[in-house]
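Practice record 12: protein with adenosine-5'-diphosphate.
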Amino acid sequence: MRLVLLGPPGAGKGTQSARLTEKYRIPQLSTGDMLRAAVKAATPVGLEAKAVMDKGGLVPDETVVGIVADRIEAPDAKGGFILDGFPRTVAQAEALAKMLRAKNMELDAVVELKVDDAALLARIVNRVKETLASGGTVRADDNPEAFKVRLDAYHAQTAPVSDFYAKNALLKSVDGMAPVDAVTHAIDDILESSRRPAQTS
Ligand code: ADP
């Protein structure tokens, strides 16, 4: 199963990915997590990405595409993967298509979680509160200013990615405003109907 999860920041991609990882036994490849790990480890990529990420902007396509290209080569991604937070631009979607073509692979589905902007801001505010209450560290970009930039980047650069996948009929939309379990069910239904018959994982 090779899946892309699309949706604005705070749409629930991480929550749903975690569930799908368990069910399908495939890794969640979150470019946000990979970039945060690079920042923490102060790698050249991390040093380059940090300032952009803290402000809520997008890291350059070449950087992110390079990270994903390496990551999907790893043995645990051979049987499939869930891409979370990638592709975020049409150029990234094109680069992914090229990468997969070279490996003779195809995506099984692209699932878009739809959530309206007001609900997203409320979710982020809540995530910050819960993180603080549990003694965790709040993400540097989980503040109203950076969130606005993230949302603007989503509308300007990531929303066209949906159109890109709608063109080849891979795109399926799910109501991300529904309760978490209902969203999981809706995604499951989509994946069951888009599973390739010849595929075993
Ligand atoms: P969100 O919760 O906003 O969806 P992520 O954890 O997916 O956040 O990503 C956090 C930040 O990492 C983004 O705001 C962006 O700066 C950077 N980032 C993650 N994925 C990509 C990508 N595919 N292209 C460019 N930048 C990315």
